[in-house]
Each structure stands twice: as structure tokens, then as C-alpha cells.
Amino acid sequence: MPQSYRPWLPKILLSIVAGLLAVSVVLGVSTYKLATRRVQLEDLTATQRQRLVERASQIVPPIYQPFPLSGPMLFYHLTPYTQFVEVLGATFTTNDLGFRTESMGPKPQGIKRIVVIGDSWTFGQGVQYEDTFTHRLEQLLNRKGGRWQVYNLGVPGWNTANEVAALRTLFSRLQPDVVVFCPTSNDIDDSYDIWNGRLVNRGFDSGAGFRHSYAYQSRWIQAFRSLQTAVDFLEQRGVPSLIYFLAEWRSLAPYYAKLSGLQARYTVVPSEYLESKYRLGSDQDLGQHATAKGHQLIAAYLHNALLEQQLVTELQPLPINRRVVFPGQTFNDTEVEAEFRHWKKFMERPDLIPLNDGFMGGHGFFSVAAPAKARTVAVQLRLVDDVGLYPLTVEIRLECPEQISVRRVFDHFVPGVQTIQVTKPQSLDIYPMIEIHVIADHVVVPKDLIPISMQPPTFEVY
């Protein structure tokens, strides 16, 4: 007599087989994805990362070179005698000094040389050299004969200190007849350092805007005074100059000119020349620099400004829609307040020195809203449990005329929030924002070679 089976047993067996098949499919798909997944940077060891950097350096030529013998303020220039293809939005070849302009040979007899010095706006990031305002200016000046040479002394990332240092360092080589300085709205940044031929942001990062605070004000005063010093240096050598403020200045240039005592003649690019229709899209250029048409407008205005100041003669002004204005130290309080309100909308990011993977390195620079009547700044620290960090000295410094700072030593790791209080001086009451510098005396690198000292601090002002 055949053995009978329970009616539910086949269904159980089928379910088990189906489950095993499903697991096999999932495992197969997962194995395939794992085997074909692109290697991520975090998958590599420190040694493998270093080898990757070495390989990359062999494949892609470095864009920048350090300029170490010039002193700490020049930092870098472009690699000389190098052709770059589709780099910084253009294809170009650098000259003997590492600039995107013609080679610096002896000045021909009868030729006058205008040196235009600036950053990425002067360099012409995002457009070909033939479309830059410096090249267009040369064409405009020579439309009745080849008498002028315009030398583009612009490098992306330079700040005012870099530009002034470059002028002093290269003055004898440049032999300028006229110098035009072109500051932009992020020229108080601590600029960049060079690593593997690339720019590495370090230190203070303004985000190309304006904050109404002592730290920003004092930096701008320093930048404007350095411009005046450079103008005086040129005047003593019989070289006239003009300051031409580019990118986002509007009503704030005369405000800082008065604070700094700037006496040099300057003009500001008209705001309508910076409208979006004259700017590159972010898909083309993250910095949204000027288009070829924007450069054309900037060049035409500069041409007329040079004529107004009689730095160029024997030419007629171009028929443009804006009269050249030299504001000096005259400004409208209401317009200045409106400018700071305008920029406040774009300045929500509190950390002015970028954090590393959610941790602070040796320095942190933070912008915090502070009511005028508030007197106490509470800095809340969260330490990292790493024996190599301790003892750890932390300094809290308020950016103010009094240079107020408080230090605390942590002998060992302490869990939870550690609060350090600093008294806010009355000198900061006129500013709605204050800047707080948090400094650790050393760091550790527990993983990924990223230096850390603590978690990002938080702040309370009351």
C-alpha cells in the first residue's frame, strides 16, 4: 500500500524552494553589483590614495605653481610655457611669467603698456582670451593705430594682497606706463595654497559677499589701504594708476573708501553690466563670471574711464549708456544699509573656514547673529575621545578692536557640552553679526588623514 503524504507538505516544500531561489537571486545581484561597483575614494588605503595622486599628476599637468621666493603674500601663479585645453573654461598657453597674456619681452619703441591686475574676472575665467576685457581694451585703444599694449596680470583666486605683491615683485619686468587694479568682492579672503598644482582653499572664506561685522570691516580697511600704498608706490615712480572695482560692489566701495581713507581715484563697474544676461550660467562656470558680451561692456567702460582720467589721450569716448563716475568717499547711508541687507540673504552659512567631514580642524571661524544689547557669548564645545589630543588648549577669540580672547586647557576627554563664556564688548554693538575664532593648539588624524580637534562648536549670544 503506497505511503500517503499530508496535503500541505508539497506547498511547504515549494515555498522553501521558492525562498531559496529568491535568496540566490538577491545574493547573485548583490555579488554582481559589488563586483562591478566603481571603486570609491573611501575604499582606498592612505598608500593607495598617495599612488593615485602621483598617477593623476603624471596624467594631468598642474595648473598652478608656488612662487615661494616672492614671500608669503604672492603664493602662486600659473605654470609657465604650458598649453591648457579646456581648463578654467578656455584653451590657452601661458607665457614666460605664467600668465594668460602675451610674452614679456622688451617694450618696443613707441609702445605704451597698461598692466591690468586682478583675479579670475581679470583673467577672464569661462571665456577665451580674445573675449577678455583686457584684450578688447587693447583693440579699442589701437583702433586708430597700434600704440598700446595691455598686459593681463590676472590669476584666478588672487586677492588684493596677492595682486599688490605680484606688482611689486614683477614691476621691473613689467615696465608699466599705466596700472589698473581690479578688486572684486571676495578680495579679503585668505586666498589659497598650492598642493599638487591645484588650489586648496585655506583660512578665511568670505563667500564673495559682504557681512556687516568688525572682522569684515577691518579686513576691507586693510585691503583698501594696501591699494593706496600700491598707488603711492607707483606715483613715486612716475606711473599713474586707476582702481576699477569689478563684480558686486554697487554702493559699498565708497563706504570702505571713507573708512580706510582711500584717496586714489577709482570707479565701479555699472551694476547693470553684471546682470544675469551678462553672466555665465552655473552649468558653464560655477563662479558665474562675465560672458563675452559682459567683457565687452566692462572694456568699454574702462576705456572711457582711462580717457576721463587722461591716462589715455588722442581718442574719443565710446558711446555707451553709462557715464563714468568716480565716487570718492561719498555714499548714501540708506543705500549702504540696503546693500548689507541684500547680502545677508546669501550669508546663511555660519562656518567661514570649511569643516572637515563634520569636524573642526585646528581653526574654526564662525559668523553669529548678535543683538546690540547682548553682552555674553557662550561657546559650546563637544570634545573628541582620542587620547592623542590631550592635554588640549582651546582659545576663543572675538574679532573686535579689543582683541578679546579666553583660553581653557582640557587635560583629558570630557563628555557632554563644555561651555566657555566670553564678554561681548560694546564696540561690536553697531554690527548685527560677530565673528568668533576657535583655535585648537593641535589636531589628530584618526582616519582618512583628515586633521580634527573637536566637533563643530555651537553658540549662544544673550
Low-confidence stretches: none
Structural class: alpha/beta
CATH architecture classification name of the largest domain: 3-Layer(aba) Sandwich
Strand order of the largest sheet: 6-5-7-10-11
CATH superfamily of the largest domain: SGNH hydrolase
- Please tell me the overall pLDDT: 87
Stated plainly, the CATH topology of the largest domain is called: Rossmann fold
Q: How many structural domains does the protein architecture include?
A: 2
Query: How would the global form be characterised?
Result: globular
SS field, number of helical segments: 9
What report would you give on this structure?
It is built from 9 helices and 18 strands. The protein is of the alpha/beta class and 462 residues long. The strands form 6 sheets. Strands 6-5-7-10-11 form a 5-stranded parallel sheet, sandwiched between helices. β10 (241-245), α7 and β11 form a beta-alpha-beta unit. The radius of gyration is 29 Å and the shape is globular.
Task: Give the topology, please.
Blueprint: H1 9-36, H2 46-59, E1 64-66, E2 76-78, E3 83-87, E4 90-93, E5 112-118, H3 120-123, H4 133-141, E6 148-154, H5 160-174, E7 178-182, E8 192-195, E9 198-201, H6 214-236, E10 241-245, H7 252-260, E11 266-268, H8 292-308, H9 333-344, E12 363-369, E13 376-382, E14 392-398, E15 405-410, E16 417-423, E17 433-440, E18 458-461
Parallel strand pairs: 5-6, 5-7, 7-10, 10-11
Antiparallel strand pairs: 1-2, 3-4, 8-9, 12-17, 13-16, 13-18, 14-15, 14-17
Concise structural overview:
This protein has 462 residues and is α/β, with parallel strands linked by helices.
